[in-house]
Specification:
8 strands; alpha/beta; single chain; Rossmann fold; 285 residues; eight-stranded mixed sheet
């Protein structure tokens, strides 16, 4: 289903004219479409695929807090924070933060429980529903979502955490990389299954993730799965090759599919263990 929606998105953006991004004051015009007239419809499809929020999914998750973030255009983004604890579940002073940027068909409450190993290691874990998804306010627009995460990262960077980690998957990798130049790059970063370009499909080149890679990418790990039916290896190849030239670690795995869509639970668990080892301990593949 996700792959069909991605194909539809590419078709619709190619068949629509693009508006030049950045022509208006971002604080006033964030919710303008930049990838053509069909952008609102495609985001509606994606958000519909994500489904509805369900607090019952958090049953049994320890030390979880309902959080909210107000953007510069006064939209409220809602999500969850797993508070730093010890392995006994007792709260501790956090050593750092992990910000998760999910795919565009996922809500925060669907995956937050997959990251309890980070909170048990003394890390505060943050995840928000995208603008217009789940419990978050606003219209679903690429330009706005990129801006939202630049703001969130700036706020976290100024919060006094010693360690800073990012896990950005699929569309979340686009949102992270496109906004990266608006704030300092955090400590260790994983970008998982993100395409190289959107301009091939009718979006402005300024939103191509490959154009936003830092010159020094030595604190990045990029992941691509040979079995990914949403973002194929060919769609991420340029991004990975450019990142590798700039010092990033690259992992291409023959068994990996798209994040949280791996064909087998054991493959998903191996992927999560790799993510944990790299972010928490700097262990490379």
């Amino acid at each position: 289903m996700a792959s069909r929606l991605l194909i539809l998105f590419l078709y619709l953006t190619m068949s629509s004219g693009c508006l030049a991004a950045g022509q208006e004051d971002d604080s006033l015009q964030l919710e303008q479409s930049v990838c053509g007239l069909k952008e609102p419809f495609v985001f509606w499809l994606w958000s519909s695929m994500a489904g509805s929020p369900d607090a019952d999914r958090l049953a049994g998750v320890q030390n979880v807090e309902d959080i909210a973030f107000e953007t510069k255009d006064h939209r409220i983004l809602r999500g969850y924070k797993l508070k730093a604890s010890g392995r006994d579940g007792q709260l501790v002073s956090p050593k750092g933060y992990l910000l998760i940027l999910q795919g565009n068909a996922i809500l925060a409450d669907q995956i937050i429980n997959e990251f309890t190993r980070f909170s048990a290691a003394g890390i505060d874990v943050y995840i928000y529903d995208f603008r217009g998804y789940g419990r978050s306010e606003g219209k679903r627009r690429l330009k706005a979502i990129v801006s939202d995460y630049a703001e969130i990262l700036a706020a976290l960077s100024s919060a006094g955490y010693d360690q800073q980690f990012i896990y950005a998957m699929s569309f979340g990798g686009i949102a992270f990389l496109d906004g990266l130049e608006q704030q300092a790059a955090p400590g260790r970063i994983i970008v998982d299954s993100t395409p190289s370009r959107l301009s091939d499909y009718g979006c402005p080149a300024e939103f191509d993730p490959v154009n936003h890679l830092p010159q020094d990418a030595s604190n990045f790990l990029f992941i691509a799965g040979h079995r990914d039916g949403v973002v194929s290896p060919s769609m991420s190849r340029e991004l990975l090759e450019t990142a590798q030239q700039r010092g990033a670690e690259i992992l291409r795995d023959k068994e990996f599919g798209h994040p949280f869509m791996d064909h087998d639970r054991s493959v998903h668990r191996r992927r999560m263990q790799l993510i944990e080892k790299y972010l928490l301990y700097g262990e490379k593949s």
